[in-house]
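user: can you give me the structure for this one chain? tokens are fine.
assistant: on it. calling the predictor now.
[tool input]
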Amino acid sequence: MKKPLKFLFYSLFLLNLNSFAAQNKEITEKLSPEIAERLVNAIYRIENSKKYPYGIKSIPIKGNTQPEREAYARRICLNTVNNNFKRFQQQGSKGDFFEFLAEKFCPTKGNSLSSSEKRYNKYWLPNLRKILGCNSYEDFRNREKDLFRVQK
């Protein structure tokens, strides 16, 4: 009687391990550098600010010259895009990544937002879609398969 229970225990353990590995595979996928660069370039155009390059307001931008400040802000923006792609996957990749990124990068709801931020932030997502020429991340990725690929 002990051997069948032991076998059942190990079988369930291996089944859970395989399930965890499958979940982990989804989470460890990342944007290719090409995808991330195209998104960051689009964000730069949308934000169009010398004072807040790439729309980075949450932390001070380091650098003595404008090119140094922009390079530093670009790295922060690139990290933000990659980290939010990971979060998007961890939350089950439900919906569109463009919408997810817009809600994190340029929210339209929240008590800490001024009325002008709420008013202007609503244009961020339509601008992203227009610059990239697609209504969704999936459309864009499918259209640009040679540039946009998900790496494992």
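assistant: here you go. The beta strands are 30-31, 150-151. The first helix runs from residue 2 to 28.
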